[in-house]
């Protein structure tokens, strides 16, 4: 039974690195947008509405 040579694995590390970086950056951007529009913007709107209501109450007094 002849022993066959195994072909060298070339470029695997680079391909994996590109995949890992792409997934990390894509996931980070997606989570950043999720936080910004799901948490930050609504809290800023609640805060602004509170201070607008407070200012209207103080102007009415």
Tell me, briefly, the overall form.
Answer: rod-shaped
* SS-based class: mainly alpha
Number of extended strands: 0
Question: Rg, please?
Answer: 28 Å
The ordered H/E elements are: H
Query: Main β-sheet: number of strands, strand sense, barrel status?
Result: none
Low-confidence stretches: none
Strand content: under 5%
Please count the helical segments: 1
What brief labels describe this structure?
0% strand; rod-shaped; 61 residues
Describe the overall structure:
- By secondary structure, the protein is mostly helical.
- It has one helix at residues 12-60.
- The mean pLDDT is 90.
- One of its GO terms (cellular component) is mitochondrial inner membrane.
Task: Give the SSE map.
Blueprint lengths: L11 H49 L1
Membrane topology: Single-pass membrane protein
Protein name: Cytochrome c oxidase subunit 9, mitochondrial
Family: Belongs to the fungal cytochrome c oxidase subunit 7a family.
Structure described in brief:
With 61 residues, the protein is mainly α.
């Amino acid at each position: 039974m002849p022993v066959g040579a195994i072909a060298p694995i070339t470029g695997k590390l680079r391909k994996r690195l590109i995949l890992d970086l792409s997934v990390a950056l894509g996931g980070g951007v997606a989570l950043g947008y999720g936080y910004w529009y799901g948490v930050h913007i609504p809290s800023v709107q609640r805060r602004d509405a509170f201070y607008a209501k407070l200012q209207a109450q103080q102007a009415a007094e």
